[in-house]
Amino acid sequence: MKTYKDLDVYQEAFDLFVRVHPFSLKLPKHELYELGSQLRRASDSVISNIVEGYGRRSYKSDFVKFLIYAHASNLEVINHLEKIAMLYPEFKNDAKELCDRYDALGAKLFKFIEYVKNNWKT
Questions:
Q1: How many CB atoms lie within 10 A of CB 114?
Q2: Residue 43 CA to chain centroid, in angstroms?
Q3: 8: domain CATH number?
Q4: How does DSSP assign 35-61, residue by residue?
Q5: Beta strands in the chain, from DSSP E residues, in sequence order
Q6: The pLDDT of residue 1 is above 80
Q7: Counting beta carbons within 10 angstroms of the beta carbon of residue 33, is it exposed (0 to 12), middle (13 to 18) or buried (19 or more)?
Q8: What does the pLDDT look like over 21-71, one tens digit per residue?
Q9: Measuring CA to CA, which residue among 35, 40, 67 is closest to residue 54?
Q10: Is the pLDDT of residue 122 over 80?
Q11: Is the dihedral of CA 67, 42, 26, 78 positive or negative?
């Protein structure tokens, strides 16, 4: 692994961010700076915490801490998407698809956190 870009969790998180951003801009105008902004920031936080953790990979505990932050942000994204699906039925299918993908990413992040805890050499 040469860079954080080689991590599967990063690649998936980045791909999801690229999908979430334009999705959030379809929300009603009054939600663009409320729920839409929260969704965009949480989605970006998943990626940013993976990258920052990787940057601190020489310190296993820091790496794990930032991966846990990424996992928590991942849960936040799911929560925002679930709210959108409930409030705006016209976005329910897209929100559900994104939720499913973020749920799968959460499982990958959890496994990666366990891997780093048990196998990462500093």
A1: 12
A2: 5
A3: 1.20.1440.60
A4: HHHHHHHHHHHHHHHHHHHHHTTTSHH
A5: none
A6: no
A7: exposed
A8: 999 999 999 998 999 999 999 999 999 999 999 999 999 999 999 999 999
A9: 67
A10: no
A11: positive
What is the average pLDDT score of the chain? 97
- The answer to whether 4 and 50 have CB atoms below 8 angstroms apart is yes
Query: Minimal CA–CA distance to 10: which of 108, 78, 115, 94?
Result: 108
Whether the predicted pLDDT of 118 surpasses 80? yes
Verdict on whether the full-model pTM lies above 0.90: yes
The encoded tokens of residue 54 equal 């990787």
Residue 96: which pLDDT band, with cuts at 50, 70 and 90? very high
**How many domains does the structure of the chain reveal?**
1
Domain that holds residue 94: 4-119
Residue-level pLDDT at 48: 98
Q: Could you tell me if 92 and 85 are in contact, meaning their C-beta atoms sit under 8 angstroms apart?
A: yes
Q: Tell me the chain's radius of gyration from C-alpha atoms.
A: 15
d(CA 5, CA 10): 6
**CA gap 104, 106 in Å, rounded:** 5
